[in-house]
Amino acid sequence: MSKIGLFFGSDEGNTESIAQRIAKRLGEDVVDIHDIGDVTQLEFLDYDKLILGIPTWDFGQIQSDWEDFWDDVEAINFAGKTVAFVGLGDQFGYGDFFLDAMGMLHDVVIKTTDNIIGYWPTEGYDYDASKAEITLGAEVAGKKLFMGLALDEDQQPELSSGRLNLWCAQIHAEFGLDTPLIELDD
Ligand SMILES: Cc1cc2nc3c(=O)[nH]c(=O)nc-3n(C[C@H](O)[C@H](O)[C@H](O)COP(=O)(O)O)c2cc1C
Prior knowledge:
The chain has five helices and ten strands. By secondary structure, the protein is an alpha/beta fold. Strand 8 and strand 9 form a beta hairpin. Helix 1 packs across helix 5. The longest helix is centred in the last third of the chain and has 19 residues. The site of flavin mononucleotide (FMN) has 23 residues, from helix 1 and strand 3.
């Protein structure tokens, strides 16, 4: 079984805690969690399945450990890898920049792989602008999605457990996993 590498950055622990809640659902023997502050580019190359967790800070900026690692991220060739994103933000506090960092990370990764999974509906959130939003064309014209799971531990923490259950089921299928999926009320 090829494992999933879950790489996160976190200033205040919210994204770290979400990383653990994802691993509990997909299986702690299936997911290797790495703090982006402690890794090198080489650790990325060990995985063909990746989950990247990033909060947005300081009005649309990348979280500081991801910022320090950014040149490495831009140099990684993600070809052959399947990648999912998790973004954390605050839709009322920073509604003009909601989840921007997830969008910026997505835009780097998509330069070298089309295998992005885990797109997520924008319904149920209230914000003004987001770089993490993508508008689908043609057959579903105008429908908007986030580029990954959108979580708001500041304004909607009570929704995170259900969102995590739904999204983990979605990426479990999209990754093609045959390992058990665990639904939690956490
Ligand atoms: C000073 C400050 C600036 C922030 N800027 C943004 C922002 O621009 N966009 C956004 O969506 N969230 C923003 N947030 C909210 C954080 O992304 C959110 O609290 C997140 O859960 C933090 O995750 P972490 O604990 O893993 O660092 C900001 C929070 C603070 C305190």
